[in-house]
Hints:
The chain is an alpha/beta fold. The protein has helices at about 15-20, 40-55, 75-80, 85-100, 135-145, 155-165, 170-180, 195-205, 210-230, 255-265, 275-280, 285-295, 330-345, 375-395, and strands at about 1-5, 25-30, 55, 60, 65-70, 105-110, 120-125, 130-135, 230-235, 270-275, 295-300, 305, 315-320, 355.
Amino acid sequence: MEESWRWFGPKDPVSIEDVRHTGVSGVVSALHHVPSGAVWTPEEIAQRQRDISTGPQGPTGLRWNVVESLPVSEDIKRQSGSWKDHVAAWTLSMRHIAAAGIDTICYNFMPLLDWTRTDLNWATPSGPTCMRFDLIDFVVFDLHILKRAGAEYDHSVTQAATERAAQMSDIEKDNLVRNIVFGLPGAAEQMSLDDVKAHLAVYAEIGSDRLRQNQYDFLEMVAPVAQELGVRLCCHPDDPPFPLLGLPRVMSTEADYTALTRAVDLNSNGITLCTGSLGVRADNDLPGMMRRLGDRVHFLHLRNVRREATKLPCSFYESGHIEGEVDMVDMVKAIREEESRRKAAGRADHNIPFRPDHGLEMPDDRQRAGQPGYPLVGRHVGLAEIRGIVATLGAGRS
């Protein structure tokens, strides 16, 4: 397991020197300032590599090992507008990334919204704060703020949302809107409420079958090039893993990932297995998924959640790394089993990169005002817990 850390670049309140002190070897990063559909140039990639490898005190010993994310534009997802030009730009960016010696690229195929939360700073019972998805708050947004035509929920949920909306102040409603449309962490684009409405209108004719086929079409164009370059592509799951705002979801279950890997059956077409995103669904067996699909798992996000119901959609919040619904001990065991199989088979990718994903925000973290979900201390605690599991299993640190 290659220990890695997500870093948003020189503007990240968590400095590269802070990252060095965590003891990881890999840095997961991206050119967040480059808009979707544009080419990542060799010069920009080389500059980010220098930002990572050299800090104010000299060489850091860190390397950029995973790109997260090389964004897939909405035009590509919808096969609209300049989508073929965007695919060409994506492919050229991938060639530049490979030429720089980076061989793993994480992406997602979620329409419109990336991860979605209603509260970015929810206080847990023990004190630290975390990100939370509250179903009733989300329905307030959908029914009473966005006022989406055709939106339907269970009667009890609709009634609860109506009652809550009547009690919310305008400031609370504005905060809710900002939280929901926060978008991709560190991204170049941020959406307004009007942007969301416009995008929803375009997606109105796109169901899950069409979105799924659009993803397969995209992969048929880029995965063979990735295979040629020795690059591993890995799709991140939907977050949360159920439909929102009438938008389709195609990466939420084991069946979705099985279909993805079979549709374009190349090793370059792989999986980012995120235990937090997928762990929201009670029907997702994460250690089992690792054991059954592990051959195509190229990247790991290890975090945990507490769901507040098993019926979907449901409320949930992000818990400590070993305190939630996912059996993290069994998960790490399954990862190490896969790595052993790969090593025995002589695979060069037997050391799977992972990062402690998200984390509880501790008191010291609040002074940094960093990206929601990405505190220094909270993630370091999660990393320490994962290291403890690895040590207990007797596998040693990679």
